[in-house]
Design goal:
Layout (H helix, E strand, L loop, with lengths): L4 H4 L2 E7 L4 E8 L4 E6 L8 H4 L2 H10 L3 E6 L2 H7 L5 H26 L7 E7 H12 L4 E9 L13 H5 L1
Parallel strand pairs: 3-4, 3-5, 5-6
Antiparallel strand pairs: 1-2, 2-4
Helix pairs in contact: 4-5
Length: 170
Amino acid sequence: MGTDTDRDHKTTVRMQSKHAGEEVLCARWGQIGTPVLLFPTAGGDGEEQERFKMIYVLRPLLDAGRIKVYSCDSVGGRAMSAEGRTTASYAAAQASFDRFIRHELVPWIRHDCESPDIEIITAGASIGAFNAVAALCKHPDVFKAAVGMSGTYDMTKWLGPPYPMDFYFS
């Protein structure tokens, strides 16, 4: 059930993000098709989708050239689960992650697809579902649909008041 890297046409890059303020691992599987940005879970990295067998499950769509799958490190999710984090620090990290997605990852995906205005589908599970839906809601000019699988959408369970505006808009 493992994946064959050559068959998956996997590419990984490490982006030094000016928005996230750290290096972010980004991965792509497939060659052609509709781009799908698959957000990892809270502590996940850009290759989590492969280890959790999502790429294996999506292989028929990848092989048929219907989709290309992209993923990146869960920068915002790591901030949420970091020891000693505050609501304000998480909200700031989430806002930075959103800027990374919109202003660094989306241009990379569009360049890879050789289409400067291609719309992207987002998807994810748990915190990844939150990020997928939030990306669509914040940037409907970039993302055309979101698939939230077993999503975690109410962050008040982990983060208490006072809620900064960045948290509210997430």
